[in-house]
Amino acid sequence: MTIYNQISSNKARTWLIFILFVFILTGFFFLIGKLFDSSSAYLVFGLIFSIGSTAVSYFYSDKIILFTAGAKPATKKDFFDFYTVTENLAIADGLSKPKLYVINDPSPNAFATGRNPKHAVICATTGLLDKLDRAELEGVIAHELSHVKNYDILLSSIVAVLVGTVALASNWLMRSLWWGGIGRRDSEDREGINPIMMILGIVALIITPIVATLIQLAISRKREFLADASGALLTRYPNGLARALEKISSDPEPLRTATASTAHLFITNPLKQKKASSWIISLFSTHPSVEERIKILRSM
Amino acid sequence: MNITTILIVAAVLLVLYLIGTYNGLVVLKTRIQEAFSGIDVQLKRRADLIPNLVETIKGYAKHEKEIFENVTKARSNLMSAKGPQEKAEANNQLTGTLKSLFAVAEAYPQLQANSNFKELQRQLEDTEDKVAYSRQFYNSNVLEYNTKIKIFPTNLFASMLGFKENEFFAANEEERKKVEVKF
Question: Could you tell me the pTM of the whole model?
Fold first, then answer.
């Protein structure tokens, strides 16, 4: 796969996800509306809500993600290496320099977000900037710049925001079901809650795998290999990124501000779960194994 | 369909092809020019840092007149150089004289501790990186263009339309080697 069809495939998938998202969420509201005998009102509301959130996710995904990650803008004075390395690699790639942000966290990691190369952000943790030397940092930034150039950032940022929205909406619907259900049965005793609890369970059961599958559909693990490779082409020094990945993966600290909906953005999995902790984690495994990536980089 | 129609269609197709080729090559050529001015900006930045650096070192090492003169001369050569090849040579020459300048500076521990000197050194190293990276961008554009005009069938028309091969911006070998730091 070359970078050019990677770009068009990312744009096409973004559209696909927008459409899927609007359909699923509107259908979901419609079904809930049926329960309350006001399906058309719920349908309209669901449509407005889902279209509104896709629009917001397109234009503001980077800001939302940076906000939830607790990132602050990085200045040249305080983060000289981070700033100049990004500036240099952007020159080598013929891109304009992305905006730079820093998360104050000892766990080394980095991600890129934004909707296109002109509106791109690269964000690194202070742990990463402290632990890596300049050549390793170049490797990481070149990897992130490849995500920017490939439009990976568009797709993964939108997925992050929409997945977050689905979680929020299902949580919210559960509450409305709860209160709506109780209002309807206020003459009855507490036995009336049991079917609602069952619905809640079913809702959670339906929503979670959908969300997981959506992420899996959108975030192919191949993109990490492609970004590694084009990053190495940019720095002409694959060993820098290989060493950086070793350092990042050998660090046991998880990143505090990363969540399941933003994990796929990072250069390596920021959640650092133990192998057999939960079946849901394997569903969310959005990164190829670091050992394999290092092996490929070393053989370049 | 008679023979004249066929000829007319063929001629129109050929003209369309030529227009497409011409425009494609113009785009590539403009990109090269832009990439070259990118190198120029960095070379100018580099040249601008040098007078300050020389002044700072002079404050500690007055007797190294010859080296200062060499650096200043190399700098003005770089400022007046034209075209990729000349600029690349002047830049390499400057790199050589700067090397001896820093070798001299090593002998003055007070200079090494000077924060102004350290800052200038850092800026200069960063600018050298930027020169290297903008050169990489320029050369990859030149490569794309040069390949295109040499490939069949574009090669049949490229020279006719006035497109010539472009010069690469040559780096000197040791400069591009990465410094491996092992602990």
Answer: 0.79
